[in-house]
Automatic annotation (TrEMBL), chain A:
This is ABC transporter permease. Belongs to the binding-protein-dependent transport system permease family. Keywords: Cell membrane, Membrane, Transmembrane, Transmembrane helix, Transport. One of its GO terms (biological process) is transmembrane transport. The chain crosses the membrane at residues 20-43, 89-113, 133-158, 256-277. Residues 85-274 form the ABC transmembrane type-1 domain. It is found in: Cell membrane. It is a multi-pass membrane protein.
TrEMBL record, chain B:
Belongs to the ABC transporter superfamily. This is ABC transporter ATP-binding protein. Keywords: ATP-binding, Nucleotide-binding, Transport. Transmembrane segments: none annotated. One of its GO terms (cellular component) is plasma membrane. InterPro entries: AAA+_ATPase, ABC_transp_ATP-bind, ABC_transporter-like_ATP-bd, ABC_transporter-like_CS, Oligopep_ABC_C, P-loop_NTPase. The keyword Cell wall biogenesis/degradation does not apply. It is a peripheral membrane protein. Pfam families: ABC_tran, oligo_HPY. It comes from Aminobacter anthyllidis. GO terms for molecular function: ATP binding; ATP hydrolysis activity. It comes from the Bacteria. SMART domains: AAA.
Length: 286, 319
C-alpha cells in the first residue's frame, strides 16, 4: 500500500555520495580541532623559538619538531593554526547564526505586516545593500573599539539584508500558497502559521543561504584581520595568519598556505554540506 | 433553522492605480443574498468568474463584503483576524479544490488532521490521537495513511484528508469550493457521496460551490444560479433542474448530460460572458439572451419571487 502510493521517481534509500562524506568529515574535523585546540597544540601560540625561525614543514626540509614549520618569529605554525581555526569558526558560526536569525526575523515581519512597516524595512535593507560592508565594519570598529564579542556581533550584520529579502520573499510566496491561508482559515494564530508552517517550509532555502553566508563571513573575517582590524594579537585567526604570511610568501610560503587551505576547504565543505542538508530536510525528496 | 444568511452582499476590487483617471472596479459580487439551513445544502452554480468563490469566501468571513451583511447563527461575523474571529473558525470550515497546495507538505496526514484540534485546544494528546483515527476512518482512510505525507497520496485520498481536517473541530458550516472538480468522475462520486453521508450523520450546513450542475443537483437542497456576480435564479434543486425559468439557467440545464434524450434541447449561448470590469447596462445577461427585449437593455431586473420558494431575476419570464 505504502509503496504503491509513492509518486516520486527518486530511488529510495539514497546513499550519501563521496563529496558529502568528505565534507562532513572535514567539518567534523574542524569542529573537533576548534574544541580540542589546547590539547592538540604542541606549543603555546606565543612561544618564540628564534633558533628555528622560518623552518619549513616536514617533507620540505623540516623536522618533526615543527610539523607544519614555523613563522618569522619561530612560532609553531601547527599550534597557531589550531587556535586560528578555533577563533575563526567561533566568529563565523556565531556571525552566521546572527545574520540568519536577524534576517529571517526582519523578513518575516516585513511579510506579515506589509504596508508601511514593509516599506521601512525594505528601505533599511536597500541602505545596507548599497553600503560596502567592509567600510561599515571599519567605521564601526573605529568607533567602538574592538573586542571578540563586538566583532562577532558586527560580523553578524554581514549578509542579514540578503537573508531578510529572501525570508520576506519566501514568506510572501508561502502565504499566497494554499497551506498558509488554509491554516489561517482553521483559526490559527499568525505566530503559529509563521513558526509551524512557513518557517519549516522556508528552512531549507534559508539553510542553503546560510551555508553561502558562512564562507563569506570566514573571508570577511580574514580580510578584516588581514587589515589589522579584526582579531587582535596575541589572539590569532586564519586571517591574521594569512596577513602575517603575506610578507614571507616567496621565502616561507607555508606560513600563508596552511591557513589559506583551511579557509578554502572549509568554505567548500560547508557549501556541500548545505546542499546535502537541504535535500535531507525535504520529505518530498525522500 | 437558518445557519448562515448573506444579505445583499457586494464585493468589488479596485483596478489599476488611483492616480490616473477615474478608478475602475471589478465587481465580483453584486447584491447577492442567500441562506444556508442547518443540516441542509445550498449549491451555487455558475461559470468561472461569476463570483461564486468570492461569495464563498465572504460567507466564511475570510474577506469582508464592501456592503451588505453576513449573519452566522443570527449574529454578524467578528472582525477578520481578531481573536473572536479565530475562535469562530472552529464552527465554519472550508474544503479546498487544490488539495496539494492546501496541505503542508512537511506534515504527515495525522499531524495535519490533528492541527485544528491543537489550534482550538480540543482534547489532550491521547484523545486527539483517537479522534484523528476516528476521522481517518470516517472519511474512508486507514490508520496507515496517517503516517504518509500529502504528496504520497492520490488526489481522492488527499481530498478525504482535507475533508477530515475540516470536520475535526466539528463545524456547523462547511463551505466546499469546487471540492471535486480536480478529481476523475468515479472519485468525484465517492467524495460527493461521502460528503452527503457525513452531512446526514453530523447535521452540518453545506454551501457547495461548483461549476458542475450535475454534482450540485446531486448534493443540494437549494440551488443558487449566479451570472456575472448576480443571482439570476434560486429555488429548490429539483424545481430549478426540472423547470428552469431564467434563460441562463435553461441554457445551463440543457447543457447537462443526461441519459434519456441526450442533448436534444441544447440551447447554445452566443458569445462569451462579459468582463466583470465592464458590465453591460441593464440585465447583465442580455447580450447573450435569446429572449432579450428593450427593457432588458435598459433596466436591471430584480430578484423577485416566481412561485413558491423560487426567485428569478428576469423581465421577460415574469410576464
Amino acid at each position: 500500500m505504502k509503496t504503491a502510493t509513492v509518486e516520486t521517481n527518486r530511488p529510495s534509500p539514497r546513499t550519501v555520495d563521496l563529496p558529502t562524506l568528505l565534507a562532513v568529515g572535514w567539518v567534523l574535523l574542524m569542529l573537533f580541532t576548534a574544541l580540542a585546540a589546547p590539547l592538540m597544540a604542541p606549543y603555546e601560540i606565543t612561544s618564540i623559538d628564534l633558533r628555528h625561525r622560518l623552518t619549513p614543514p616536514v617533507g620540505f626540509g623540516g623536522t618533526m619538531l615543527h610539523a607544519l614549520g614555523t613563522d618569522d618569529l619561530g612560532r609553531d605554525v601547527a599550534s597557531r593554526l589550531f587556535y586560528s581555526i578555533r577563533t575563526s569558526l567561533l566568529v563565523a558560526f556565531g556571525a552566521t547564526a546572527i545574520s540568519v536569525l536577524v534576517g529571517t526575523g526582519i523578513g518575516f515581519i516585513a511579510a506579515y505586516f506589509r504596508g508601511l512597516v514593509e516599506h521601512a524595512l525594505l528601505l533599511m535593507i536597500d541602505v545596507q545593500a548599497s553600503l560596502p560592508f567592509l567600510i561599515v565594519a571599519l567605521a564601526m570598529l573605529a568607533c567602538f573599539g574592538n573586542s571578540l564579542t563586538l566583532f562577532v556581533a558586527l560580523m553578524g550584520l554581514y549578509g542579514w539584508e540578503r537573508n531578510a529579502r529572501l525570508a520576506r520573499g519566501l514568506a510572501i510566496t508561502a502565504s499566497a500558497q494554499g497551506y498558509a491561508s488554509a491554516t489561517r482559515q482553521l483559526g490559527a494564530h499568525p505566530l503559529r502559521v509563521y513558526l509551524r508552517h512557513i518557517l519549516p517550509n522556508s528552512a531549507a532555502t534559508l539553510l542553503v543561504a546560510a551555508t553561502v553566508t558562512f564562507p563569506e563571513i570566514v573571508l570577511v573575517e580574514s580580510g578584516l584581520s588581514f587589515l589589522g582590524l579584526g582579531v587582535q594579537p596575541p589572539m590569532t585567526s586564519l586571517g591574521v595568519m594569512v596577513a602575517a604570511g603575506r610578507e614571507y610568501i616567496t621565502r616561507a610560503s607555508w606560513m600563508l598556505l596552511a591557513p589559506s587551505l583551511v579557509i578554502v576547504i572549509t568554505a567548500v565543505a560547508v557549501s556541500v554540506l548545505g546542499d546535502w542538508l537541504r535535500d535531507k530536510l525535504d520529505p518530498t525528496l525522500k | 433553522m437558518t445557519l448562515l444568511r448573506l444579505n445583499n452582499i457586494t464585493r468589488r476590487f479596485p483596478l489599476g492605480s488611483p492616480l490616473y483617471g477615474p478608478r475602475k472596479y471589478l465587481v465580483a459580487v453584486d447584491g447577492v443574498s442567500l441562506d444556508v439551513e442547518m443540516g441542509r445544502t445550498t449549491g451555487i452554480v455558475g461559470e468561472s468568474g461569476c463570483g461564486k468563490s468570492t461569495t464563498g469566501r465572504i460567507a466564511l468571513g475570510l474577506e469582508p463584503p464592501d456592503s451588505g451583511g453576513v449573519l452566522f447563527q443570527g449574529f454578524p461575523l467578528p472582525r477578520i483576524d481578531s481573536k473572536k474571529w479565530r475562535a469562530q473558525r472552529r464552527q465554519m470550515q472550508l474544503v479546498f479544490q487544490d488539495t496539494l497546495a492546501a496541505l503542508d507538505r512537511r506534515m504527515t496526514v495525522s499531524a495535519l488532521i490533528a492541527e485544528p484540534l491543537a489550534i482550538h485546544g480540543i482534547g489532550d494528546s491521547a484523545s486527539r490521537e483517537q479522534r484523528v483515527a476516528e476521522l481517518l476512518h470516517g472519511v474512508g482512510l486507514g490508520e496507515d495513511h496517517g503516517r504518509l505525507y500529502p504528496h504520497q497520496l492520490s488526489g481522492g485520498q488527499r481530498q478525504r484528508v482535507v475533508l477530515a481536517r475540516a470536520l475535526a473541530p466539528k463545524p456547523s458550516l462547511l463551505v466546499c469550493d469546487e471540492p471535486v472538480s480536480a478529481l476523475d468522475l468515479s472519485v468525484q462520486a465517492q467524495i460527493v457521496n461521502l460528503l452527503m453521508d457525513l452531512q446526514q450523520e453530523l447535521g452540518i450546513g453545506l454551501l457547495f460551490i461548483s461549476h458542475d450542475l450535475r454534482v450540485v443537483r446531486h448534493v443540494s437542497d437549494r440551488i443558487v444560479v449566479m451570472y456575472l456576480g448576480r443571482v439570476v435564479e434560486q429555488g429548490r434543486a429539483d424545481a430549478i433542474i426540472d423547470q428552469p425559468a431564467h434563460p441562463y439557467t435553461q441554457a445551463l440545464v440543457s447543457a447537462m448530460p443526461r441519459l434519456p434524450g441526450g442533448f436534444d434541447h441544447y440551447v447554445a449561448l452566443p458569445g462569451e460572458p462579459p468582463s466583470p470590469t465592464d458590465r453591460p447596462c441593464g440585465c447583465p445577461f442580455h447580450p447573450r439572451c435569446p429572449l432579450a427585449r428593450d427593457v432588458c437593455r435598459q433596466s436591471l431586473p430584480e430578484l423577485l419571487p416566481l412561485g413558491p420558494e423560487r426567485q428569478v431575476a428576469c423581465h421577460v419570464v415574469r410576464h
